[in-house]
Amino acid sequence: MDLTIRAAEPRDLTGLTALMNLPGYRHGTLRLPFESEESARKRLFEGGPNMTLLVALLDGELVGTIHLMRWTGRRAHVGGIGMGVHDAHTGRGIGRRLMETILDLADNWLGLTRLELSVNVDNARAIRLYELSGFEIEGRERQSILRDGVLVDAFTMSRLRAPPRPASDQANAAS
């Protein structure tokens, strides 16, 4: 499996829009059906400097995406994550690789100490991935999401880490 994960680029817009309009992808997210490329472009590429959007390409085909939104002000230590994988490519480790990549960015480059996300309670595969990645359920949002005419509950999940240590602390700990 030749999987590449990289920053999303404007040339990915058609593939991203097609991905987000797939029924299975949409089922597990907050995406509405029939999103246009223009709407997707504004939402995905006008998020500003605190938004990181990555794509997964399998043999050149766009098969997944993950984003990290860094908050500001008194929540500057927090990031929100959202992700999804192509309907025909779930269960192949693509979500895991996307999550590993975004966690490396959050931990080792941005120094975020709290990551949070929301997941539909019936999305067992995603919940398992998040738990394996260190996320824990914090609460249940009752009737949180309208999906196919039914109100669905969602879990709020978070992952907490200690703040990064200064290099001088690391050197002292090694000696």
Written overview of the protein:
This protein is an alpha+beta fold and about 180 residues long. Helix content is about 30%, strand content about 35%. The protein has a seven-stranded mixed beta sheet, with helices on both faces. It is globular and about 55 Å long. The termini are far apart. The model has no long low-confidence stretch (mean pLDDT about 95).
Kindly report the average pLDDT value.
93
Order the strands across the largest sheet as they lie in space.
1-2-3-4-5-7-6
The description of the largest β-sheet is: 7 strands, mixed
Oligomer: single chain
Strand content: 25-35%
Give the overall form.
globular
Total DSSP E strands: 7
Distance linking N and C termini? 42 Å
Instruction: Give the topology string: H per helix, E per strand.
Output: EHHHEEEHEHEEH
User: Structural class given helices, strands, pairing?
Assistant: alpha+beta
Could you outline the blueprint of secondary structure elements for this entry?
Layout: E1 3-7, H1 13-20, H2 23-27, H3 37-45, E2 51-58, E3 61-70, E4 78-85, H4 94-108, E5 114-120, H5 124-132, E6 136-147, E7 150-160, H6 167-174
Parallel strand pairs: 4-5
Antiparallel strand pairs: 1-2, 2-3, 3-4, 5-7, 6-7
